[in-house]
Design goal:
The protein is built from 1 helix and 31 strands. Strand 30 and strand 31 form a beta hairpin. It is an all-beta fold.
């Protein structure tokens, strides 16, 4: 286990004036080495470059460029804005991914590699570093966690990579009290394995996200138009088939697992979901495709509507046709939903949360925080940070800014990969790093 100093509370120096400028056009694309707290970007569809190559291009450059994970140099700490402080909430976890706060304030974490869900008591936040209890173990790469019914839960739902299960739960439980009940079985596990969960705004249904089995569905067999039309009536507009059937989707289901259907399609990998307070709108993080260029296709944060189609595998960022599928689905070009907030491509955007706490300044309330685990497939690294997407009157402006940086030391070495994110009961922000097994706590002084 990497050793990280417990004494991490600190304040940063004032931000340079240029950090508050909004980078647009080509200037919005950059490298993790140049990220800075407060740096703002606004990527728009008209600023995207054309594809430089495609999935099956034998001449395409090979950017298999995974980072070298290193221990943080002595005194190296994540950077946060002036007026905030950061400290270690917990260490010693095994690939901590999703963080979820129970209605009573207890903090649950999916340790995916270890196959377990751990839990921290709500009051542990006052005596750091916190020590967890093991709620349940023996799971298959657990990820998404939700409590249902949301206000007075009787169950905790967990999304394993191959199924969704639920356990009996009452507030304050720190160890499982009953056996797993399989709610949705037999989820295919090829390629994207993370399955997130969210409770629908009506409080009567749940969502599960299931990523694609491939990059751009290159092995999907041809089907005549009449078969495609019939297929879409039961699977949704733009739904893929073959090994991609019921993949690259958000699905909705009854609490007992019945009446499962595709809620939205064309989402290559919605690795994180959250319902926006006030509007009741579902949001997703989007991990987009590889192999069409260093700045394509943008990752994103987006609203997700019932029956909506987001392009994969035929299109990206609206009606931009993927060069691996030229002319294959012109019928879909007018049925696309363009994502709300475009992020730098290949950032591996993982989880998002709406800030509804009261301990941060008022300007943060209602904004989105999202984690970026970082790229492996471009020459110059992107991601490795937490960003804040600006929301005004319930609508995203498209502008996002760097909130928590410093994880990438240079183009080769990184020491952390932010993944999970949650707002604790006291309004502080919790961020998990699945590389060092650490959870950080960000608070405002």
């Amino acid at each position: 286990m990497m050793r990280i100093s417990i004494l991490l509370a600190f304040l940063l120096l004032p931000l340079p004036a240029q950090a508050q400028e909004v980078l647009t056009g080509e200037a919005a694309f950059g490298s993790a080495e140049n990220d800075a707290v407060g740096m703002r970007r606004h990527i728009t569809p008209d600023a995207l470059p054309p594809p430089s190559h495609h999935e099956n291009d034998s001449e395409a450059p090979d950017f298999d460029n995974a980072p070298t994970l290193v221990s943080p140099p002595e005194g190296t700490l994540p950077k946060v804005p002036e007026g905030f402080k950061i400290e270690v909430f917990a260490t010693g976890l095994t690939q901590p991914r999703v963080l979820e706060v129970a209605p009573n304030g207890d903090i649950f974490v999916a340790e995916s590699e270890a196959g377990r869900i751990s839990v921290f008591a709500a009051e542990a936040i006052r005596n750091l570093p916190a020590q967890p209890d093991i709620f349940v173990k023996g799971l298959n790469r657990p990820f998404g966690i939700v409590f249902f019914p949301p206000d007075n839960p009787e169950f905790i739902y967990v999304a394993e990579t191959n199924q969704v299960v639920r356990f009996p739960y009452k507030p304050g439980d720190r160890a499982v009290t009953g056996k797993a009940e399989v709610i949705i079985p037999n989820i295919p596990t090829e390629r994207h394995w993370t399955r997130d969960l969210a409770v629908a705004p009506d409080g009567q249904h749940l969502f599960v996200s299931i990523g694609s089995a491939s990059n751009v569905a290159g092995a999907m067999p041809d089907r005549p138009p009449e078969e495609i039309s019939a297929f879409e009536k039961s699977h949704g507009v733009g739904a893929a088939w073959g090994e991609e059937e019921n993949r690259a989707v958000v699905r909705i289901f009854d609490p007992d697992g019945k009446n499962v259907r595709n809620f939205a399609t064309g989402l290559r990998n919605c690795s994180g979901m959250a319902v926006q307070p006030g509007t009741g709108t579902l949001w997703c993080t989007g991990n987009e495709r590889d192999h069409i260029g260093p700045n394509l296709a943008p990752d994103y944060l987006t609203t997700v509507e019932d029956g909506s189609f987001y392009g994969w595998p035929w299109y990206y960022t609206g009606a931009n046709e993927d060069p691996a599928h030229p002319g294959e689905r012109p019928d879909l070009a007018q049925k696309l939903k363009t994502p709300d907030v475009l992020l730098q491509a290949h950032s591996s955007t993982m989880q998002l949360v709406f800030y509804e706490g009261t301990s941060f300044p008022d300007e943060y309330r209602g904004n989105i925080f999202a984690t970026m685990r970082g790229s492996w497939n471009r020459e110059y690294r992107t991601g490795y940070k937490v960003v804040r997407a600006h929301v005004e009157n319930g609508k995203a402006t498209g502008v996002y800014e760097d909130f928590m940086t410093g994880f990438a030391l240079d183009q080769e070495n990184v020491w952390a990969r932010p993944t999970g994110i949650a707002v604790a009961q006291d309004g502080s922000l919790l961020v998990s790093d699945d590389a060092t097994g650490t959870i950080f706590r960000v608070s405002h002084e």
